[in-house]
Amino acid sequence: MPSDRVRKLLAEAAELPTEERADLVNELARTLPDSYEVDDLDIDYDELDRRMEQISQGEAVLVPWDEVRKQLHSNK
């Protein structure tokens, strides 16, 4: 469970455009110690790269966060 501080940062980050959020993910990952196992992050960088390429090429269907949030909350 994320701390209040992390939740606040995530809320701010969620308002960034997609490419800036991806940049933030990459920059945060770079701040981790070398001894931190990628498996601990559960990040599939190949998949992330593939999806970012789809976004860059205009091949991805992007859904605004507000719409996704509404869909998630309507399923409860």
Would you mind describing this structure in some detail?
With 76 residues, the protein is mainly alpha-helical. 66% of the residues lie in helices and 0% in strands. The protein is built from five helices and no strands. The chain starts with a helix and ends with a helix. The model has no long low-confidence stretch (mean pLDDT 85).
Concise description?
This protein is mainly alpha-helical and 76 residues long. Helix content is 66%, strand content 0%.
Can you lay out the helices and strands and say which pair or pack?
Blueprint: H1 4-14, H2 18-30, H3 38-41, H4 45-56, H5 65-74
- Unreliable segments of 5+ consecutive residues: none
Protein structure class:
mainly alpha
Shape: globular
Helix content bin: 55-70%
Please write the string of helix (H) and strand (E) elements.
HHHHH
Radius of gyration: 14 Å
Please give the largest β-sheet: none
Distance between the termini: 19 Å
List keywords for this structure.
mainly alpha; 0% strand; 76 residues
